[in-house]
Each structure stands twice: as structure tokens, then as C-alpha cells.
Amino acid sequence: MNGHNPLDTIVMDGEEVSFQTGETLFEISERHRKDIPTLCYDKRLDPFGGCRMCMVELEGSRNPVASCTTKASPGMVVRTTSAKLEKDRKTLVELVASENREIATNQLAGFASLELAQLVKRYDAHSGRFPGKKSGQSHDDENPFILRDYEQCISCYRCVRVCAEREGDYAIDVMNRGFATQITTQFDGDLRDSECTFCGQCVQTCPTGALADKKALRATDIAGVIKKTRTVCTYCGVGCSMDILSKDEKIVGVQPAMDGPANIGALCVKGQFAFDFVQHSDRLATPYVRKNDELVPATWDEALDRAAAGFQQATQNHGNEAIYAIASGRAPHEASYAMQKLMRAGWGLNNIDNCSRA
Ligand code: SF4
Ligand code: SF4
Ligand code: FES
User: Fold this and answer.
1) Which atom, in ligand 3's list, is nearest to the CA of 37?
2) Does residue 265 sit in the same domain as residue 125?
3) 39, 247, 267, 279: which one has the fewest Cβ atoms less than 10 Å from its Cβ?
4) Is pLDDT at 231 greater than 80 in this prediction?
5) 206 C-alpha vs ligand 3 centroid, how far in Å?
6) Mean pLDDT, residues 40-58 taken together
7) Ligand 3 contacts CB of residue 25 (under 6 A)
8) Is residue 54 assigned to a domain?
């Protein structure tokens, strides 16, 4: 986006508003808290203009224009809502819903999975108004993470675009056209045989739940409300922001934070799906020390004394430089800070690193 010229203004819903060169009508409307519905839009992706839900009236234009693809130019006069626009939007939702009669409403499926369902509700749309025909056939993909239920697909291409534009993987593609449209993989096979890295971005952008988080969906039958807790991934130094989904104190899934400064909605396979370690029954809950070649549970005092004795022995035998510390990426900041203090102030060494740098 280029610089801002205060003379660049348009009239939006009767009010003169300024814009920056390159801004779309939709972006301007968002800044001014207008509530234009969208469906194929994901602010992280290049505008696509496929669904027309975001259409607005533009003076001088015979037909409404898609606000997500129309760039502002000085003097435009735009209306973001009117009885006619709302009627047309309802018809559009009904056309889309005619392809997808079982509107998914499972929040656990993915971050955006309720978008179509919310539009159906907002417009009181009837999925049976148009006879339509379903496009897309589900793919029984054996991978443990991503469900591919294309019975729910509305061909918005958000998954294809996020995979190409954000992940650079091009693992997902589209074949055929019209009612024969099918979202597929490079060679129409399983995801694990494609370039897919199981980052889950396609799941999180899908507005229908056609692509869904298999792990999180397992918690559908667990009683209790879904709680979201904002946190930071503990795996590596990128520091992706994420929302942990939990039910009854049990972690059931992870969704990326779309406003995370380091990741803007992206996660890798570890952050997205590898959360079982947190509450795994194999996770150590007490220190262990080796006695007669066997690891046995110990108190913290015993374990720390044993560690101190080991360090002393090593420095006596080989000198200070024999000690090198690598802090765990899963440790909190305070623990990492204490560890470098131990090395620098305790031994006078700079032999300290953190696996998060990898
Ligand atoms: S699978 Fe989901 S994101 Fe992909 S085209 Fe279908 S509805 Fe859109
Ligand atoms: S491990 Fe993956 S999700 Fe976690 S911080 Fe690093 S890049 Fe982000
Ligand atoms: S949201 Fe603008 S055309 Fe789909």
C-alpha cells in the first residue's frame, strides 16, 4: 500500500471518508466498522471475488460490485447496505447453501468453520430454495489430522489459496468446473502423498467445516463448554500465538491466533496438532534419579543434590569448560533466564543455548 493523500476520499453511506492508494472498498468499510458479509474472503489472502457476498452499490455502475476486489478511486460514491443489497445477499447465501444442505455448525472443526452457518442464520436463508446439485465428493484420507468432507464444500477455494499463498506448498488444488468442481490434492490422492506439511491452515480458513480438525472433533461428545485460552506455542523460537481449546480442563484442540504478531494465523504441524504431551499420562510428574542402574522416583532435593554432585564431578575431572547448557524450548522464560544465570554467574561461562534457536 502506498502513501496516504488526504485528498483521496470517497463517499461511503453518505459520509466522506479518506483512503490510502490501493485500498479496497471492503478494507475501507472495515476501518469504518461497516458490517459487509463475506464468504470467500480471508484478509490474509489475495482478493478472489468468487462469492459476491461482499457486493456494494457503486454510483455509476449498473450492477453492484464486489467490495473485496474493487479498489477505491477518488470521488466514488458507495452504499454498503440497502434493502436490495440485503435481498441479493440472501439469494446468494441460498444459492451457496443449495450446494451444501447440511450446514456444519461445529466450532471444533476449525477457526472459520461457522462462517457459512452464521450467514445462513443472519439471512434466515433456506438451503432448499434452489434445487442445485452437490459438487465435491468426500475423500477418506487416512491421515490422523485433517478430515476431508467435501460434501460440505462450497468451492470458495480458500483452502487452495491459503496453501499456495501462505504456505507456498501448492498441495491442494481444484479440478473440474461447475457442479463437477472437486477440491483435491496434487495427484488426487491422500494428503500425506502430497506436499502437505499438515500445518492445518486449510482447516482453519475453511468456512464450512468441509476441511476439519479430526483431533478436535473427537471432543464433540465430551460434555462442557469450549473454553479458549490465548497462549504462545512452546515448541520453537518463532513464538506463534494460539488459542488452546479446552473442555472440562482437558485440552481438545488448538486454533491459530489470526492476530498473532509472529504468525498471523499460521501454525506448523507441531503447534497445530502435537499438543497431547501436555496432559499425557507418560509425562513425568516427579523427578527420577538413577539407583543401581535403575531410574526411581525421588524428591526434588534428592534430584538437585544428585545433579550438583554430577556437575562438581565433571568440573573436577575436566574443568569448567566441560559444562554446556541447552535450555528447553518448552521451559518458561523465567526458567531459561535462571539457567543462563546459573551458567554465567555460577560457572562464569557463556556455554548456554536454547533449542528454540533451531
Ligand atoms: S474445502 Fe472448505 S475452504 Fe476448500 S473450497 Fe471447500 S469450502 Fe472452501
Ligand atoms: S513450533 Fe511451529 S507453531 Fe510452534 S512456534 Fe514454532 S513455527 Fe510456530
Ligand atoms: S467476499 Fe468478496 S467476493 Fe467473496
Assistant:
1) 1
2) yes
3) 279
4) yes
5) 14
6) 97
7) no
8) yes
- pLDDT class of 358 with cuts at 50, 70, 90: low
Same domain, 58 and 169: no
Report how far residue 277's alpha carbon sits from residue 279's, in angstroms, rounded to the nearest whole number.
6
Beta strand segments in the chain, E: 4-12, 15-20, 55-58, 65-66, 77-79, 146-148, 172-175, 182-185, 211-213, 227-232, 241-247, 250-256, 288-291, 294-297, 325-327, 352-354
Q: Tell me which ligand sits closest to the C-alpha of residue 56.
A: 3
Whether 256 contacts 267, CB under 8 Å:
yes
pLDDT digits (tens, 9 = 90+) for 233-265: 988 878 899 999 999 999 999 999 999 999 999
Please report which ligand is nearest the Cα atom of 235.
2
Ligand 2 pocket at CB < 6 A: 233, 235-236, 238-240, 263, 267-268, 270-271
Q: Which ligand is nearest to the CA of 156?
A: 1
| 38 Cβ below 6 A of ligand 3 | yes
* CA of 256, closest atom in ligand 2: 3
Cell 566441560 maps to which residue? 322
CATH number, residue 252: 3.30.70.20
